[in-house]
Amino acid sequence: MSQPMLAAVTTADAIREQAALLFFERGYDATTLRQVAAAVGIKVSSLYNHIESKEQLLLSVMGGVMDDLLALQKVAVSQDVDVIDRLIAVLDCHIRFSASRAREVFIGNSELRSLPTDARAKVIAKRREYERRIQDLIVEAGREGKAVVLDARLHTYSIVAKGTHVASWYRPAGALSMDRIINIYAKAALRELSVNDADTRVDGWPAAA
Amino acid sequence: MSQPMLAAVTTADAIREQAALLFFERGYDATTLRQVAAAVGIKVSSLYNHIESKEQLLLSVMGGVMDDLLALQKVAVSQDVDVIDRLIAVLDCHIRFSASRAREVFIGNSELRSLPTDARAKVIAKRREYERRIQDLIVEAGREGKAVVLDARLHTYSIVAKGTHVASWYRPAGALSMDRIINIYAKAALRELSVNDADTRVDGWPAAA
Amino acid sequence: MSQPMLAAVTTADAIREQAALLFFERGYDATTLRQVAAAVGIKVSSLYNHIESKEQLLLSVMGGVMDDLLALQKVAVSQDVDVIDRLIAVLDCHIRFSASRAREVFIGNSELRSLPTDARAKVIAKRREYERRIQDLIVEAGREGKAVVLDARLHTYSIVAKGTHVASWYRPAGALSMDRIINIYAKAALRELSVNDADTRVDGWPAAA
Amino acid sequence: MSQPMLAAVTTADAIREQAALLFFERGYDATTLRQVAAAVGIKVSSLYNHIESKEQLLLSVMGGVMDDLLALQKVAVSQDVDVIDRLIAVLDCHIRFSASRAREVFIGNSELRSLPTDARAKVIAKRREYERRIQDLIVEAGREGKAVVLDARLHTYSIVAKGTHVASWYRPAGALSMDRIINIYAKAALRELSVNDADTRVDGWPAAA
DNA sequence: CATGAATGAGTCTTCATTCAT
DNA sequence: AATGAATGAAGACTCATTCAT
Fold this sequence. Notes:
Four copies of one chain form a homotetramer. Chain A has twelve helices and no strands. The first copy, chain A, has helices at 11-26, 33-40, 44-47, 54-62, 65-78, 83-100, 102-110, 117-143, 152-169, 178-192, 198-203, 205-208. In chain A, helix 1 crosses helix 2, helix 1 (11-26) packs across helix 4 (54-62) and helix 8 (117-143) packs across helix 9 (152-169). Chains in contact: A-B, C-D. The A-B interface holds A 25-27, 29-30, 110, 113-114, 150-151, 154-155, 157-158, 160-162, 164-166, 169, 176, 180-181, 184-185, 187-189, 191-194 and B 25-27, 29-30, 110, 113-114, 150-151, 154-155, 157-158, 160-162, 164-166, 169, 176, 180-181, 184-185, 187-189, 191-194.
């Protein structure tokens, strides 16, 4: 009823879905379990047949995001192709993920501080690993003379920031198609690194795969 | 003690300062007026001799940020120089502000939704105006053939995102000096727009002023 | 596992057993039906196939205690022997019961107030009857010059109190054997009443039976 | 207002008083903070201006009881008189305290298990110390041939039990005066130990002091 | 019989806010 | 100005109980 497109099979799924929506819209602290329950169509106490606590609910919402993202990035990074092509793959992965799972990504960014200390630490570690891989690629490209690196870390931040930003406004029904967004941001990133034929590389990209 | 340079003269100032710190660290919802009072060294009820409400406190913390930012941007934009130089000035303004007033900027980004509807609307309008000016500059540069614009809005977002990101991690004592960060991000932005001699333009910039 | 000797045959029995254990350890109010269910190895809802309500469970745990005790006391009181011998029999009965069914006795003492009003009234009536019989014996002994009674009621309380106390600490595996405890407390009670040859009477007691 | 005799000066005192009353009547678990607040004549949330938590309230109610009791007992034990006189003094102290502060003593006995583990451990240690002193006196009396000891520990329990029991029913307005109760129970205790002239010793007791 | 799920009632606790002093 | 106390509103969570499967 409340999920026209994605009918949640389990009540537990429905709870996670609605919670994600509400956490995204109002923030974790400002979201009441009453609101979550109402959105699902059950009473607050019934919630506890499916979740352990509000904190656990947040965890399960943020849950796999970083793992999924790391897994996808791994694939992109591991391809046996040119650095630039791997970089493009990583960019594609980054923006596509940030857009297609915008809500979770956004929550993952904004509600880190609502997480219990140990869980937060784990997520932060994954985040660092994720950024490190991007940075490594940038350094490699620089070393091979295929990019003019100003500051590897800041270039990385610049890329990461694009994803964070996209996650805050992307809507499937928006004016810009996801592929177009990815295409432009990938070009922008390569340009920022002064990669030769940045635009062409991006447009001809999946070809090499 | 927590503000080495700017010792708050008024109690009201101290409150705003500590509130900013706490809102930044834990978020508006998760911050208690008790915590603010404790940080200032007074009791909760005494707070109300200086503030009207928690919401008003948030407003006064986020208060001038957008106004100040718009004012600074205005100066940058109004200079009677080359588009690219104006763009650089705007970039400098953007990153410098995002870094030097990181906490307020961060709160302004993350706690928009905690604002009462009308206040939120006003801030959003200012935000749009701010972004519009950047976008206009990009469009102008593109029209004059001094930049190869892929999508003016996305380029704008890319720039804005850098500031948002910087506001989340910049510390005065950090490894990177503010000027260096600005220098690199300005180059990155010009490169992203395929501006000729991007790096040189940035390095030689204030000269024209 | 928790009942080495008396393995509960019925699930209903197991429930009563575990409930008794938990009520004893944590009190009725502090005991959760979930805990009872867990102790039995079933789920909470399954409990209701065997009990009517938590209150009824308490009732059935406290259930027969007073009836059983009264019945045993009846036998002791009705013997056709010397008052002192009957008193000793009653003392034996009292302490033996308090020790051998310590948990139920303890619960019966401490959870009276958790009982619904009418049930509580019934138990209290039985209690009074029980104490009255002891008191009557004391009075009789006094009248016959076989005891020096200070205050029949207080002597009765003194005896009752010993049982209550024993019920709170007696463990079958403890240092003192049950028979020894009974022997000593019986002597103490007779001594308290200044019965002649108190110790000898107790030691030679079952002889007369 | 609600305490005709003992007008509590502080609100905090009133809370402790009413809490003691309610904990005594219905038990800690069955007592609601709402009830406590209502009894005091304030709202539940106001309670928290005076207490830290329900558990702390229990602690502060049970608070000094054992300390006070130990202090009084110390005085009785330390007198430079005959063992039997010291024993009588200790008995007087025990029963008098159990009666005059019946509610607190009762709560201290019945709600031990509601205490957090560490607090419970402390109270239990004090209890043991208290009982040990009684037992030492009994042993001493036995060694000096002034008492015929059956089992020092059980005699101690017998005495302790009388106090516990008294605390459960004593009312200042009751039929038996406190002094009479003390007198009888002291005699009963000495008789139980086969002390010579038990009754006379008790009746002539304070004389030696 | 056993159980997963639902739920109304109620628990302790926190918080922003007010007001008399 | 500062504060102790009071309070309405709300929040997360628990529990005994019911019912369909």
